[in-house]
Design brief:
The complex is a heterodimer of chains A (about 375) and B (about 475). With about 375 residues, chain A is α/β, with parallel strands linked by helices. Chain A has ten helices and 16 strands. In chain A, α1 links the parallel β2 and β3. In chain B, the strands form seven sheets. Chain B has a seven-stranded mixed β-sheet. In chain B, strands 2-3-4 form a three-stranded antiparallel β-sheet. A two-stranded antiparallel sheet of chain B has the order 1-5. The two termini of chain B are about 20 Å apart. Classes of the chains: A alpha/beta (about 375), B alpha/beta (about 475).
């Protein structure tokens, strides 16, 4: 796994943000006049101990190389004993975890909510402004919109200062109201809202998300996103709970949500509650693809783009393979023994680091 | 609960097709129609209508917005002008029985672009805002003026980020230089193949020698460039159609999987001395039988052949955005995304409008390449190029899927205000959509196999079309 956190020693007990610059990058910042107070230059290398110095403090990072982290934006954590990688400069998979609080309790939650909340928004804002050109930054939680009063203005400021950036927000969309129309309109072309919907009926959806009234609330908030012209990625994790209801959900989507940008049908991730409830929830599409095929075909017939997230390509019947792009983030992706020699390995997202091989897909085979 | 207005049409055997303005549809019963008409809908009725997107509770709720979005998406958007049909010469080396273009003899003078016209055409194309261009060379026989084709292509390649060229040729006489021209990856061939050799000879080539020359060139083109670079269109005389099997083998044997059956157009020579609607019922029946034949054949062989226009109608029923066929869309605004430039530099909204003008029936020209598009005239034509408010179309459940063809109405009847059901366009498309819906509600594997592939699906999903008692 790619590490998202390093052991570190900070000169400051207080947290601070630093962009890590090796020599060439540091020189380039001076040449172009783009240096900021957050820029830390590499001043010493001793084995795998890298020392960076910035106006805000000095940071020693352990267990990596200067090339590996060049251009990364890190947060020196309180206490000064570790550094969190907020932006990995060479990765397309960077996500800010806004909070671990959530008002839903989904059966398969990969990141079960916690009550404790640490407000890191100012650090995220600084990091976003230091991101490499053209990056789309993920915003996730918990439920990020629990803090929308601070979050939406922060996103607006970043998008104003950095016209090249975009955000991909994962939100349950429970906390949007009419007053949010203006900010949604303002960022509509540059923010993709990943919003989950698990069934076309309230009972099933509410049971899966562990909150009664959640479906009805979505029916109230989705129109607000639609009226704002917001970009929407509808997300449906497929489980035994809802697999048989997929075709009905597809019919609901094409009629009532035809304006979405795409519909992501997602395989389960075996971590958090997903790991605890795996045996009860996991739907093995490698042996039973029909409900998914029906949903894909209903959507395609009506011009709604539907795609498969977290579907290893060999588990998908050949005619549908092109709908299964590589989606598992690099830092939590792995390949199995079966994958060696597979012709499609390079375009396949592989498996989650925590994929349970003994309880997973029955049909796996190199292509 | 508010219900969006439903139109309906008898499908026979006590069932009706219901459709709303956004193209949502379902099959229902006469009992349901009674309940709908008498405002006596049951809870089941209301739930069914809600699920199908035919209702809303209040303005701007999710159902309302879904409907509004689907309605908007159905209206063919005006796009940038990026598709230009050029007629560099009206001269032709064939005299087809149904010639649609009021051709000129091969040796005639005064039917080619002058140097001045060429310059103006290039200036006109060069002034378009579109980032990409598609050029279709029509005629006459465009290969008679390969020099002009070269100069247009050179210009467009250098002027646009992406340029694509289609040469509509009879493939009768192809010089070594013409073969070189056609070999380019950005250049495609469109030709006529009237079913079997006998029909092709009768309608087009007239002599065995010319027939053999054509088939030799067609086969060489497909062998050399591949079937994806060649499209061949049969023009069918419904009084003497070729045998269906013969048409099919003419295409399949050459690796061509898409057949676009066109009835002889009521244009040019073809309209002399004929009742405008002669053969319509025969055409509709013959075409429907052809579709059945394809379904049976596709299922038996496990391979897919399509009739292009039927596939287009099917896609238009299922989804918004199938607007790429310029003869079937709504609104069908003129000179918005494509335009014809004739051999004398006159601009026409469509090839058919050019023919009507050429025979002196009506002047449908919309400007000249020297002076640009006559926007006032285009606006006059556009006022009648939309079926949404037509007093007949508003009652028809097929309206959202259908189009309008003002030029065809003028061509056949000399006017555009006939009751729609009395026009060839309406009767032909009503028959086509009847067939589409007949197939959509069949449940046999053979039909579903063909339908799914014609609609670009991997397989036919359950629950795609809805029924209510």
């Amino acid at each position: 796994m790619i590490p998202l956190r390093f052991a570190a020693r900070s000169s400051q007990p207080e947290p601070f943000v630093m962009r890590l610059n090796a020599e060439v990058r540091a020189y380039e910042l001076d040449r172009t006049g783009l240096r900021t107070e957050f820029d830390g230059d590499l001043v010493e290398v001793a084995g795998q101990r890298l020392t960076y110095a910035s106006p805000r403090g000095t940071l020693v990072i352990e267990g990596t190389t200067a090339e590996e982290v060049d251009g990364d934006v890190v947060l020196a954590l309180p206490g000064g004993r570790a550094a969190q990688r907020l932006i990995r400069a060479t990765s397309p998979h960077n996500t800010f975890l806004i909070t671990e609080r959530c008002d839903q309790l989904c059966l398969m939650c990969s990141q079960p909510p916690k009550h404790h909340h640490a407000d890191l928004l100012p650090f995220f804002e600084a990091a976003a402004l230091l991101a490499p050109a053209g990056m789309t930054i993920g915003i996730s939680g918990g439920e990020p919109l629990l803090y929308k009063a601070a979050l939406l203005p922060m996103m607006q400021r970043v998008l104003t200062h950095r016209p090249d950036l975009g955000f991909h927000v994962l939100s349950n969309a429970q906390h949007i109201d009419e007053d949010d129309l203006d900010p949604l309109v303002g960022m509509r072309d540059r923010v993709l809202w990943g919003i989950p919907l698990y069934a076309a009926d309230a009972a099933t959806h509410d049971r899966i998300v562990g909150k009664s009234g959640a479906f009805l609330q979505l029916m109230e908030t989705l129109p607000i996103f639609a009226r704002a012209g917001a970009s929407i990625e509808l997300r449906t994790v497929i489980m035994r709970e809802n697999a048989a209801l997929l075709a009905r959900l597809a019919s609901f989507v094409i009629m009532h949500l035809p304006f979405i940008n795409r519909w992501a049908l997602m395989q389960l991730e075996s971590i958090g509650f997903g790991r605890q409830n795996w045996d009860r929830l996991f739907f093995d599409h490698s042996t039973e693809f029909t409900p998914i095929a029906d949903a894909l075909n209903i959507a395609k017939a009506r011009n709604v783009e539907a795609v498969l997230f977290n579907f290893p390509r060999c588990t998908v019947p050949q005619p549908y393979r092109d709908r299964a792009p590589s989606t598992i983030s690099d830092w939590k992706r792995r390949y199995l023994g079966e994958c060696s020699g597979c012709q499609e390995r390079d375009i396949c997202g592989g498996f989650f680091e925590w994929y349970p091989e003994d309880r997973g897909f029955q049909r796996l085979a190199r292509i | 609960m508010n219900i969006w207005p439903l139109r309906f049409r008898d499908l026979g055997r006590g069932s009706l097709l219901f459709a709303d303005d956004a193209g949502g549809f379902f099959k229902g019963t006469e009992d349901f129609l009674d309940r709908y008409a008498l405002n006596a809908l049951t809870d089941e009725d209301q739930a069914f209508l809600h699920e199908g997107g035919h209702t809303f509770q209040r303005e701007l709720d999710l159902s309302y917005l879904g409907f509004a979005y689907r309605w908007c998406a159905r209206q063919a958007p005006r796009r940038q002008l990026g598709y230009v049909i050029l007629v560099p010469t009206l001269r032709c080396n064939l005299t087809c029985s149904y010639c649609q273009v009021s051709r000129a003899p091969e040796g005639a003078r005064g039917f080619d672009w002058t140097e001045d016209t060429l310059d103006a055409v290039l200036a006109f194309i060069g002034g378009l805002a579109a980032p990409e261009i598609k050029i279709e060379f029509q005629g006459g026989e465009p290969l008679l003026r390969l020099d002009l084709l070269e100069r247009v292509r050179d210009f467009c390649r250098q002027r646009f980020g992406k340029a694509e060229f289609v040469v509509c040729t009879n493939l009768q006489a192809v010089s070594a230089e013409a073969w070189d021209y056609l070999a380019a990856p950005d250049t495609f061939i469109s030709t006529s193949l009237d079913g079997d050799a006998v029909t092709h000879q009768r309608q087009r080539t007239r002599s065995t020698e010319l027939t053999n020359a054509f088939f030799g060139n067609l086969d060489r083109a497909i062998e050399q460039f591949g079937s994806s670079k060649v499209s061949a269109l049969p023009t069918i005389d419904i009084e003497r159609p070729p045998a269906v099997d013969e048409i099919i083998s003419s295409f399949v044997d050459r690796g061509l999987r898409s057949i676009y059956l066109r009835p002889i157009n009521h244009q040019g020579f073809a309209r002399r001395g004929r009742d405008p609607d002669v053969g319509l019922d025969r055409w509709n029946a013959w075409h429907a039988a052809f579709i059945e034949h394809l379904i049976e054949r596709n299922f038996r062989t496990g391979t897919i052949l399509e009739e292009y226009y039927f596939s287009q109608c099917l896609k238009r029923v299922l989804r918004a955005g199938a607007d790429e066929h310029v003869d079937l869309r709504n609104p069908n605004f003129f000179a918005s995304d494509y335009l014809v430039i004739d051999h004398d530099g006159v601009l026409y909204p469509t090839d058919e409008a050019r023919m009507q003008s050429r025979i002196g029936r009506i002047d449908l020209s919309v400007g000249h390449v020297h002076h640009g598009i006559d926007t006032e005239k285009v606006a006059t034509l556009n006022a009648a190029s939309c079926n949404n408010f037509d007093p007949d179309c508003i009652h028809c459940p097929y309206q959202p899927f259908c189009g309008s063809d003002l030029v065809d109405d003028i061509s056949r009847y000399g006017r555009i205000d006939l009751p729609k059901q009395a026009t060839w366009f309406c009767r032909r498309h009503t028959s086509l959509f009847d067939k589409v819906f007949e197939l959509l509600y069949r449940r046999d594997e053979a039909t579903r196999f063909s339908l799914s592939r014609w609609a670009d699906l991997e397989s036919w999903p359950e629950h795609l079309v809805r029924e209510h008692q």
